[in-house]
Design brief:
Strand content: 15-25%
Helix content: 25-40%
CATH class of the largest domain: Alpha Beta
Radius of gyration: 19 Å
Distance between the termini: 38 Å
Order of helices and strands: EEHEHHEHEHEEHEHEE
CATH topology of the largest domain: Glutaredoxin
Structural class: alpha+beta
Number of helices: 7
Shape: elongated
CATH architecture of the largest domain: 3-Layer(aba) Sandwich
CATH superfamily of the largest domain: Glutaredoxin
Strand order of the largest sheet: 5-4-3-6-7
């Protein structure tokens, strides 16, 4: 099974560092940032877990819940968290999924056999409150994720949902956005009374 954007994220029941959860129930009315790691006590993973914890307020502003996964046990996760907190000067409180049998990693296609038969690559799934997959990214084990980009795409997705817009290359909050071609000029007059710049008939830029 290939997980595609727009499809419902697979549900599961699992033990985490914060107790047993049902994934869809845990998401609730929030967005989710679901991300995997090759293993506990690895250097790149430690920095990523720490960075996620440091950005707790930023995720909260976006109504987004982080949840990690590593193919180790709850007990191993909990002792690793102590190292994360100590080395990254933070306090990690979000749940980490225990997946020693690789069940969830395989369900979400986080195991890439040419990379490792047992360790998950660095997968990212952004999931909306309707439990739909809205974005996927995959990094190799040796490359840490760009958390500025993760927050940026959450902002872009949420703005697009709220304002019926698309975002151009390198968009940042406050930049101009694109009126999708599916919205006619007549309809756009009501939706975007502030007007727009028509670079081409298919490329209309506006502010929101």
């Amino acid at each position: 099974m290939t997980l595609r954007i727009g499809e419902t994220a697979p549900d599961f029941d699992v033990e985490t560092t914060n107790g047993k959860i049902n994934f869809h129930d845990w998401i609730g009315d929030s967005w989710a940032f679901f991300f995997s790691h090759p293993a506990d006590y690895t250097p790149v993973c430690t920095t990523e877990m720490g960075r996620t914890a440091q950005l707790a307020d930023e995720f909260a502003k976006r109504n987004t819940k982080p949840i990690g996964l590593s193919t180790d046990t709850v007990e191993e996760h909990k002792t690793w968290i102590l190292d994360v907190n100590d080395t990254q000067n933070t306090s990690l409180t979000f749940p980490i999924v225990a997946d020693p049998d690789l069940k969830i990693a395989k369900l979400y296609e986080m195991i890439h056999p040419s990379e490792s038969a047992t360790a998950a690559v660095r997968s990212v799934f952004i999931i909306d409150p309707n439990k739909k997959i809205r974005l996927t990214m995959t990094y190799p084990m040796s490359v840490g994720r760009n958390f500025d980009e993760i927050l940026r795409v959450i902002d872009a997705l949420q703005l697009g949902d709220a304002k019926r817009v698309a975002t151009p290359a390198d968009w940042r909050p406050g930049d101009k956005v694109i009126i999708p071609p599916s919205i006619s000029n007549d309809e756009a007059k009501d939706i975007f009374p502030q007007g727009w710049d028509e670079v081409r008939s298919y490329l209309r830029l506006t502010e929101v």
